[in-house]
């Protein structure tokens, strides 16, 4: 129903961003369907802001050089 990895769901649960799971048996965990559907509906109503990309100029290996100077002429 939710196409996220188990580890992603676990991390979101820890941050309070996803409904908490509960044990159905010692080896089986489940989520309340109504809570998950409410979470899905809340995700549909608010836009998701894309993550900002890394600053590739700060890489230690293969940094991208600044383009503030004009290209050299041959």
Tell me roughly what share of residues is in helical segments.
25-40%
Radius of gyration: 22 Å
Order of helices and strands: HEEH
pLDDT < 50 runs, ≥5 residues: none
Instruction: Give the overall shape.
Output: elongated
The total of helices stands at 2
Question: Any overview of this molecule?
Answer:
This protein has a domain of 45 residues. 31% of the residues lie in helices and 9% in strands. The chain is built from 2 helices and 2 strands, in the order αββα. A hairpin with a 2-residue loop joins strand 1 and strand 2. The protein starts with 5 loop residues before the first helix and ends in a 29-residue tail after the last helix.
Give short descriptive properties of this protein.
74 residues; 2 helices; 9% strand
Give the gist of this structure:
With 74 residues, the protein is an alpha+beta fold. It has 2 helices and 2 strands, in the order αββα.
Which helices and strands occur, and which strands form pairs?
Layout: H1 6-15, E1 22-25, E2 28-30, H2 33-45
Antiparallel strand pairs: 1-2
């Amino acid at each position: 129903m939710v196409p996220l990895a188990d580890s992603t769901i676990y991390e979101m649960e820890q941050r309070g961003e996803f409904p908490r799971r509960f044990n159905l048996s010692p080896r089986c965990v489940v989520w309340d369907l109504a809570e998950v559907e409410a979470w899905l509906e809340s995700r549909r109503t608010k836009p998701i802001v894309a993550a900002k990309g890394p600053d590739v100029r700060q890489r230690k290996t293969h940094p991208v050089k600044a383009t503030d100077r004009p290209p050299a002429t041959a």
